[in-house]
Amino acid sequence: MSSLVRSARLPARPARRARPDDWMLRQLPVQMLAHDFFVRFVSIFQELGSSLLDDADNVDHAVDLTVAPESSIAWLGSWIGVEKLDNSMPAELRRRIVATAAQTLATRGTVQGLRAYLELLSGGAAEVEDGGGVWRAGEVPADTAWVRMHVASTGAVPEDAFVDMVRDEVPAHVRAQLWVADRVVWDSEHDDEW
Question: pTM here?
């Protein structure tokens, strides 16, 4: 398990004791247990109640990325703006993406945030160049809203999904280019062609 997912985990709670199989029947008066009809009748409700109680016992784990069902990962990501999780990616990678996005929310859209996100998705080093900076009054360049991102590969993420996910991380007003190895896979100025 990655340290990113582990660090996003909530403090462990003490384990609950298992409920006996006959927990509801044990609550009946002794005289009722002597009648087969009552035992079978109450057993129906006990089975239904057990499944509801099991779900209720696990509700605190529904938002824990380390144990949440795979079907919940994208839903949890949507809470913090991670909208384009591709289900063809390994579950462990999707869990890491959501956990990392939660931890780096404050740097989202910055050079540091983009670099961290690209490295997470690609599994390798990433370079990010941008036109932003700090200048003296009157010395601001005419064009500062651009970013160029470089990765060696898209790692375990299919290229289309990689582009979609990176597109969501780049601020809307910024012109962007995404390079994978030696080719441009996305250029925001020609977004309709991609």
Answer: 0.63
